[in-house]
TrEMBL record:
Residues 359-465 form the Pyridine nucleotide-disulphide oxidoreductase dimerisation domain. GO terms for molecular function: oxidoreductase activity. Pfam families: Pyr_redox_2, Pyr_redox_dim. Its EC number is 1.-.-.-. This is NAD(P)/FAD-dependent oxidoreductase. The keyword Magnesium does not apply.
Length: 474
């Protein structure tokens, strides 16, 4: 049985990005259909942002408490892993999406459950769980918001091992006695932090020279130091050559011929776009590819196809995907209503400027690492004449009050020609809350002379802003 319906906008994927595209379309008076093959709310709600941070919050809170005399004596025992996992389950709504479905209904978007595939220009065919087909035609736009999946390496024996990816690492129902984590990026560092604190003996295997290689080098160094002090092993410059599962034990073979045994192994080795089976070939695009877009999030060479969020490979972060969704929704509505887009206005409602200049990110390890904009290496590679200004956050009065033995570092990258900030990085307990101020400074291109008059409250960790500016001015 097949039925056909026409909408102004058809959205493939009901994660936070797809939800926001539909919301912006509806707010502009356009009709919208949303197609989802799994849970409404997507990766972020059930297998990424929310469950991972629910696992990490007790870890960070305990670490902060142990920095304070009078409190540390009360929190010396281990975390109650069962209670932490139960709270995590609450934050994922026990992997049920009723609340998210109700929200979609409240904005007036129609939900189609099933596998959605492009079957020609402006045309999406949805095959429901019962085999029923729905053919959806879009008057103005189809938005691909299908996100990414974990990219697993081509290793002998991997298919038979049933390894963890980010999904299993955030949804596991018991703590493994030993856990091998392959990778050195954000997922690897966060999950190593969480499971070590919950009782696993964690060994990290990093092919490169250190953790968090896309941030300033000191970020990975401080996070590594803390992980090692917590009892984890961090081995750099090593590669996995093969894995086998023998009963309940995973045997990992390294490039030097040595082996490791563990109950589970997590591969956090990158992401791949979920575009391999959505019908891209029917509109002249390569299945399984990233989808390059312009600053209005429209796929290059198309007048109707948009790719929003991780799938376009601009910035693989939920908050950036939601930002892109707001831009895409505004652009789709403007074009549908015949309103000309001001293509030259980089700060207009229809241009994803911040994806180029001020992408913020927080890594919820202990210590936290947060950044906005470019690193020193990225700024130099882009040809800017810059100066890196560093400051020891522990020297700020607010850091000492935050907790004993505070360790942290801040760096700002100054464009010497324009005297604005191109990037800022903080590492230390609690610094995630400093990142938005850095994002404002970078995205807003606030001149150094004006930042001098932005007075931080005393005594807070944010006083590091004043110290960075004083160091720059000399």
């Amino acid at each position: 049985m097949t039925d056909e319906n026409t909408y102004d906008v058809v959205v493939l994927g009901a994660g936070p990005v797809g939800e926001n595209v539909a919301d912006r379309a509806r707010a502009a008076g356009l009709s919208a259909a949303v197609v989802e093959s799994e849970l409404v709310g997507g990766e972020c709600s059930y297998w990424a942002c929310m469950p991972s941070k629910a696992l990490l919050r007790p870890v960070i809170a305990q670490a902060d408490a142990r920095r304070l005399p009078g409190l540390r004596e009360s929190v010396q025992g281990p975390l109650d892993a069962a209670a932490v996992l139960a709270r995590r389950d609450e934050y994922t709504s026990h992997w049920k999406d009723d609340g998210q479905v109700s929200w979609l209904e409240s904005i007036g978007a129609d939900l189609y459950r099933g596998k959605g595939r492009l079957t020609g220009p402006r045309r999406v065919t949805v095959t429901g769980p019962d085999g029923t087909e729905h053919v959806l035609t879009a008057r103005h736009a189809v938005a691909v918001c299908t996100g990414t999946r974990a990219a697993l390496p081509d290793l002998p024996g991997l298919a038979d091992v049933d390894p963890w990816t980010s999904r299993e690492a955030t949804s596991a129902q018991k703590v493994p006695g030993r856990l091998v984590v392959v990778g050195g990026g954000v997922v690897a560092a966060e999950m190593a932090t969480a499971w070590q604190a919950l009782g696993s003996q964690v060994t990290m295997l990093v092919r490169g020279s250190g953790l968090l290689s896309r941030m300033e080098p000191f970020a990975g160094e401080l996070v590594t130091q803390a992980l090692v002090e917590a009892g984890a092993q961090v081995r750099t410059g090593v590669s996995v050559k093969g894995v086998t599962r023998e009963g309940g034990t995973v045997v990992t073979t390294l490039d030097d011929g040595s082996t490791l045994e563990s109950e589970e192994i997590l591969f956090a080795t990158g992401r791949a776009p979920r575009t391999d089976d959505i019908g891209l070939e029917t509109v002249g695009l390569e299945p399984g590819s990233w989808l390059p877009v312009d600053d209005s999030l429209r796929v290059e060479g198309s007048t109707w196809l948009y790719a929003v969020g991780d799938v376009n490979h601009r910035a693989l972060l939920t908050h950036q995907g939601k930002y892109q969704a707001r831009i895409a929704g505004a652009a789709i509505a403007a074009r549908a209503q015949g309103v000309p887009l001001l293509e030259t206005d980089r700060w207009g409602a229809h241009a994803a400027t911040a994806d180029h200049s001020a992408v913020p990110q927080v890594v919820f390890t202990d210590p936290e690492a947060g950044s906005a904009g470019l690193t020193l290496a990225e700024a130099e590679a882009a040809g800017h004449r810059v100066r890196a200004v560093d400051y020891d956050i522990a020297s700020v009065a607010g850091a000492g009050l935050y907790g004993d033995d505070y360790r942290g570092r801040a760096r700002m990258i100054v464009d010497l020609d324009r005297e604005i900030l191109l990037g800022v990085t903080f590492v230390g307990p609690g610094v995630g809350e400093l990142v938005h101020s850095a994002t404002v400074a970078v995205a807003g291109e606030v001149p150094i002379d004006r930042l001098w008059h932005v007075v931080p409250s005393y005594p807070t960790v944010s006083e590091v802003w004043l110290r960075l500016l004083e160091t720059y001015r000399g």
